[in-house]
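Subject: sequence -> structure tokens, single chain

Hey, anyone have a minute? Need the predicted structure for the following. Not urgent.
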Amino acid sequence: WGHGKLALEYLFAKGRLNVSHRTNFTRYYATPETVLPEEVLEAPPLSKEEGIDDLTVSAMRGLGVATEADIAQYWRMKRADVRPSLARLVASGHLEPVDVDGWRSPAWLLPGLSIPHRIAARALLTPFDPVVWAPRDRSERIHGFDYTIEIYVPEEKRVFGYYVYPFLLGDRIVGRVDLKSDRSTGRLLARATWIEDHADPAHVAPHLAAELHDMAGWLGMDEVEVGRKGNLADEVRRVV
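Reply:
Had a minute. Here:
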């Protein structure tokens, strides 16, 4: 970052600037008066404890059930701040402590949380989705899915690819795809496709092919091209 970007990020962190919108990964900054509603601007400032409590509850809405480490990582908070926040929120009835089978650490959830008996999900998850993002062992605890972002791994040491999207089907992560959008040719490239050991290739492949076409349409790509790398590549190439 240059000096200008550092100054903008500092002012953003201090609350003296806000982000009005983004285009791709580019932030557009503005003063709070032009972005925030009047009731927010006129509200009294939160104490540190109130701010931590709000961030903890916000993290729980995104995580569903979580350990202290999960919550701290969600908003990059210090565990020393999260620990007393959890105690306060339990005492006030905003959180409930729970034990999760197979988890060595205690966990918490929001009271009255609705847990569906079945989830009809189908999604390619970005490497930074809370389902798989740090702490790394969370996806292992919940999905039995060992995931490492390999963007910063030297090419010769990568196992699955450069920018790998986990594939969620139902309530399980069943595969992963190394994706790249080639805007010069209008193609979405699935450079490598992999299936997890517990999943059925014949069941997963058509769902993954459909999701790849959905993503291509969302990105404005004209077609999907599936490479030959990966233990699911042949199945997906037949149905894409």
